[in-house]
Amino acid sequence: MDKGDITNQTKHKKICCVNDMPGVGKIALSAMIPFLSVNGIDVTSLPTALVSNTLDFGKFNILDTTEYMDKTIDIWKSLGFKFDCISIGFMVNPKQIDIIERLINNHDKEKLVVVVDPIMGDEGKLYNGMTEFNVQIMRKLTAYADILIPNFTEACYLVDGICSKKNLTSTEAKDLVKQLRILGAKSVVITSSFVNNKNCVIGYDHLNDYFFIIEFDLVDVRFPGTGDIFSSILISDVLNGNCLYEATKHAMEVTRDIILYNKNKDEKFFGVDIEKYISEGKL
User: Fold this and answer.
1) Which of 33, 76, 189, 215 could be disulfide-bonded to 81 (CB atoms 3.0-4.6 Å)?
2) How large is the average pLDDT for residues 152-161?
3) How many domains does the chain have?
4) Alpha carbon 121 to chain centroid distance?
């Protein structure tokens, strides 16, 4: 089975989510695990850090779990644990790249789908606590990505700020994808983009050699963790057999729906009410 044939399997797909785990807030692993699980994906988590709360609060504490990761993947290898997909999010230091490289190399790469969500920033700037150091880490991980899912800001940082303007032409959008692919990414999905004066998601599916732009109506409300939700729906759909274009469209629809569902929530820094949304059969 090659990477283009991740369908036609009756058993649940297994994913290892490499990301941070928050104490307070529906972001990262806390946001991804419920959506992946409800879509029939068997989730294993490998926390890169324990984070006290979403960074939006301004104050936070981060516990680096590199040593735990290092010992854990050796144990997993000895126990024969294998995954169909490794999803990589927030990373703390370069040593974690070496650990993830070992985890990837423990698998048959032709049967493994690697997804990289280079969590670094949004709205033209890096998140609180993020530096050029984090950009360098994510730039190196991009080389492993079968699917790379940056937002527009992160895409620009990855290619060293090649996009100096927010509103792109279709040609400039294709060029941005091309620059990310030069870094090593195969398929690319760029969220929070603006092309030809319209909000959209830019994508390229390397399996079908297909470039696409999907427009959307912006909901002017910000919640932390919606990017993680988008990624988890997209990954679920791809692992369950959908093409990248359809998976992207569905991820956009679910993300928009859950933002509207939580639009009037007062405490937005805590993220959206994921379990309530799922329990009411909204998916």
Assistant:
1) 76
2) 92
3) 1
4) 13
